[in-house]
Design brief:
This protein is of the alpha/beta class. It has one domain. The chain has four helices and four strands. It has a four-stranded parallel β-sheet with strand order 2-3-1-4, sandwiched between helices. It is globular, with a radius of gyration of 14 Å. 19% of the residues are buried.
Length: 107
């Protein structure tokens, strides 16, 4: 199993980078809380903060599901908490190959 982690601050190009190189990652699901939050399935949550929180929960659940099912996936993160680093450590212990790209946008 391969896990591709696109990390960096907001606006640094994580999603854009994945979109541009997506053809290299055949059969890799991109788990992105921002895209989940924009999905019409969460439109019933009117408060943007609550919608983003629910999207983050869904994204975390999807990452765990892919890890459990040993399926390749990519995700993006700002690495603002140790949660995703702990997840990557757990995935590595379970035999995943981890690829990390850190984006930095100098404005």
């Amino acid at each position: 199993m391969r896990i591709f982690c696109f990390a960096g601050p907001n606006g640094s190009g994580k999603t854009t980078t994945f979109d541009r190189i997506n053809s290299l990652f055949k059969d890799v699901t991109f788990i992105n809380a921002d895209l989940i939050a924009a999905d019409s399935d969460l439109a019933h949550i009117m408060d943007p903060g609550e919608r983003n929180l629910e999207a983050a929960r869904i994204a975390e659940s999807l990452r765990e599901k892919h890890l459990y099912e040993y399926q390749d996936f990519a995700f993006e993160t700002v690495l603002s908490t140790p949660r995703n680093l702990q997840f990557l450590k757990k995935a590595k212990e379970q035999g995943a190959t981890i690829f990390v790209a850190y984006m930095y946008a100098d404005t």
